[in-house]
Design a protein that fits this description.
Elements: H1 26-38, H2 57-73, H3 77-86, H4 93-106, H5 110-122, H6 128-144, H7 148-157, H8 165-180, H9 188-196, H10 201-217, H11 220-230, H12 234-250, H13 254-270, E1 292-296, H14 304-320, E2 327-331, H15 337-347, E3 352-354, H16 359-372, E4 376-378, E5 393-395, H17 400-413, E6 418-424, H18 427-442, E7 446-453, H19 461-465, E8 473-476, H20 480-492, E9 495-497, E10 509-515, H21 522-528, E11 536-537, H22 548-561, H23 567-584, H24 590-599, E12 602-604, E13 607-609, E14 623-629, E15 632-638
Parallel strand pairs: 1-2, 1-3, 3-4, 4-5, 6-7, 6-8, 8-10, 9-10, 10-11
Antiparallel strand pairs: 11-14, 12-13, 14-15
Helix pairs in contact: 3-4, 4-5, 4-6, 5-6, 6-7, 6-8, 7-8, 8-9, 9-10, 10-12, 11-12, 12-13, 14-22, 14-23, 15-16, 17-18, 20-21
Length: about 650
């Protein structure tokens, strides 16, 4: 079995790099930056004219100074917007709107970029070069937002506004994504051929996987049209050849079928791809082929970032299996469409499905998986609220409530008996704190106090003082960036984080800091690690922690994706690995796999993967602690 896709990473973006499509992330950024660096430097070519001198002198001076900062460092979208608003009607307004849009798009805020650029294009008498440049960036933003109808004509008319190789790569990627989201997704194939030349290995793998999906979903007439249009495009020929050959063979045209297969094999060799002819089973395939998995991943709109993380985790998980790497068919679907995706994958030879993640999709897919008798491992972050699927549906992720309960048990085992809660006044804060408090009570321990704060709080100096004394550990159900502010505020108030059992500490009293620490990572360690000695955290996964399994996962992930993984990546990775382990242990059918998932346990990077009677995780996951030795801060996994 062969690995048939490579994932693209999601998450942050290099400063000064725009985000033209949901799946273009650090791998593309690195490839494009290296390409630009290798090219000879030349004078910047732009269609944007000089700012007129006929308007307000102060407005022009402010804009030019800000533009210099932007060209040097990026950013400043809000400042450009402020200039446009303050000097509406001045000749500087369209320039400020353009740069506000470009800066927002480069910062990854496509919605704000689109707002500024639409205002620009709605102005009367905008100079042609300025307008075309605005159309280019509105096309990029619209592609990222999944608005193919807006993006495609703008991208087509604005190519001449591209100023450098970086923007050329972004424009090609946006063309691919917009066509994939259009009513004619096979039209993306020629753009895939153009993008292939500068794409990284991970991006190329994604193009093949995503292209394979649209080819598999197309009707015969569309396939024949795509074959006629493919010409010498290697990507298009490689993807379409087998489908076209099957169509011609069914029509009795054996010669045309043979020619198509030959051309497809040659194209795949030219692209350095494995010969996958016949590897994609028809919908009415017979017995299950062990090693083929399905995945349902929403990959646009609000789900784009999480979707990219899931795809990356699946990619690394599959690759880590080695010679027995499973083939994974990814279907982009959400909501009710997720149920149809299950039907499609069940009709093929998928042994199991991983995903989806959002509530509506999980519920729809779960019900259908139960009907189809196909094991489904959801990535819902709220598994307690999900239902349907019976013996066939399992939930891979520990909820925040489950992680809070695990923290209470870990602290109790360490000797803590009196607790405080410091939480945001939000649905998340209330629900997770309630679960923690219930576990504290169940253990026979005491909740001494609970203090709430507004979710947008930035300063905690006064708030932490409301906690008073009379407790040993404080639980903060929050994101890592907020706990970065809480931890030093506690220390400044004389509540010094130390390991449980510490008797005395200089400058105050020792306390144990507990948190779900959503989104944990290197920034927290850098900013607040020294204020968190002995803390116990349950973020699901903490990249960079001292942990043999986790560090090996991160080594593989970094090599494939080029950045640190997130908790979502880790859970997706564990899903693939758990199925592979059970297959290696003898699972040979969907029914057998479901039985083994219900009773087995597989060590993973997020814990000992096993499921309780409700098919939620039966293990506590991994608790992490912070060790501080002088100026050295270490995160360590407690298995």
């Amino acid at each position: 079995m062969t690995l048939r896709f490579a994932a693209l990473p999601g998450g942050g973006y290099r400063r000064g790099m725009s985000r033209p499509a949901w799946w273009i992330a650090r791998a593309l950024a690195l490839a494009v930056i290296l390409l630009v660096a290798a090219c000879p430097k030349s004078t910047r070519r732009t269609l944007v004219p000089q700012v007129p001198t006929t308007g307000d002198a102060e407005a022009r001076q402010r804009f030019l100074a800000l533009r210099e900062e932007f060209l040097r460092d990026g950013g400043h979208a809000q400042e450009f917007t402020a200039i446009a608003d303050q000097y509406a009607g001045d000749p500087v307004e369209p320039f400020a709107l353009l740069y506000a849009g470009v800066a927002a798009q480069q910062a990854g805020d496509a919605a704000t970029a689109a707002t500024s650029l639409k205002k620009l294009l709605a102005l009367p008498d905008v100079e042609a070069g300025l307008r075309t440049r605005g159309e280019l960036y509105l096309g990029l933003a619209s592609s990222y937002l999944g608005d193919a109808d807006t993006a495609l004509p703008l991208l087509a008319s604005s190519e001449r506004a591209i100023e450098n190789n970086r923007e050329r790569g972004e424009w090609l990627a946006a063309q691919v994504h917009a066509h994939l989201n259009s009513a004619t997704p096979l039209a993306a194939l020629p753009w895939m051929d153009r993008f292939w030349k500068t794409a990284s290995e991970a991006e190329r793998g994604y193009l093949i996987a995503r292209g394979g999906e649209v080819v598999a979903a197309a009707d015969d007439a569309a396939i024949e049209a795509a074959w006629a249009a493919a010409g010498e495009g290697r990507v298009a020929v490689a993807l379409v050849a087998d489908r076209f050959a099957a169509i011609r063979a069914a029509a009795g045209d054996g010669d045309a079928a043979a020619r198509a297969r030959k051309l497809g094999a040659e194209a795949r060799r030219g692209l350095d791809l494995p010969d996958v002819g016949g590897d994609v089973a028809p919908a009415d395939a017979g017995p299950v082929a062990v090693g083929r998995l399905g995945a349902i991943v929403a990959q646009s709109g609000k789900q784009a970032r999480v979707g990219a993380q899931i795809v990356a985790g699946l990619h690394v998980g599959a690759a880590s299996v080695g010679a027995g790497a499973p083939s994974i068919a990814i279907v982009d679907a959400e909501g009710g469409a997720a149920a149809d995706a299950v039907t499609s994958l069940a009709g093929g030879d998928s042994l199991a499905i991983i995903g989806p993640a959002d509530a509506a999709s999980v519920d729809a897919a779960s019900a259908r998986a139960g009907d189809a008798g196909l094991p489904l491992l959801s990535l819902s972050p709220r598994p307690e609220e999900r239902k349907g699927g019976g013996r066939w549906v399992f939930h891979l992720m520990h909820s925040a409530e489950a992680r809070a309960r695990a923290l209470a048990r870990r602290a109790h085992a360490a000797g803590v008996r009196k607790f405080a809660i410091l939480r945001p006044d939000s649905g998340y804060g209330s629900a997770v704190a309630r679960a923690f408090a219930a576990e504290v009570a169940a253990l026979g321990d005491e909740l001494a106090t609970e203090v709430t704060y507004k979710p947008d709080t930035k300063s905690f100096a006064g708030i932490v003082k409301q906690l008073g004394s009379g407790w040993q550990a404080v639980f903060v159900p929050e994101t890592a960036d907020k706990v970065e502010l809480v931890a030093p505020a506690l220390a400044a108030a004389g509540m010094i984080a130390r390991p449980a059992g510490t008797k005395k500490v200089t400058g105050g009293r020792p306390i144990v800091l507990l948190s779900t620490l959503e989104g944990a990572g290197e920034p927290f360690v850098r900013e607040a690690g020294r204020y968190s000695a002995g803390a116990l955290f349950a973020p699901g996964y903490f990249p960079g922690a001292v942990d043999d399994r986790g560090l090996e996962f991160e080594r593989q992930y970094l090599a494939a994706i080029g950045k640190a993984p997130t908790a979502v990546d880790a859970y997706a990775f564990d899903g693939v690995r758990a199925i592979a382990a059970l297959v290696a242990d003898g699972a040979r059918s969907r029914d057998d796999l479901a039985r083994r998932l219900a009773t087995g346990r597989v060590d993973g990077v997020t814990g000992a993967v096993g499921f309780d009677a409700d098919h939620r995780r039966s293990d506590d996951g991994i608790i992490y602690t912070i060790e501080v030795d002088g100026g050295s801060v270490t995160v360590r996994a407690l298995r």
